[in-house]
Amino acid sequence: xxxxxxxxxxxAFASVSAFVGAALDYFAGLSFWFGVAIGAGALFLxxxxxxxxxxxxxxxxxxxxxxxx
Length: 69
Hints:
Elements: H1 7-27, H2 32-55
Helix pairs in contact: 1-2
């Protein structure tokens, strides 16, 4: 079995999701686990949007490439 090499990222993901869940439980009265799901979904969607923006022409990973028209 392969060793898990991204455990710090997974730990940060779980910690932020748990914090969002606790905050939503305290301030909005939502269920903790529903808040964790909202936090995890928000982090996941943010990662997808950041990847799309970084890979697009002129983005962070692609600063000089122009888009073909």
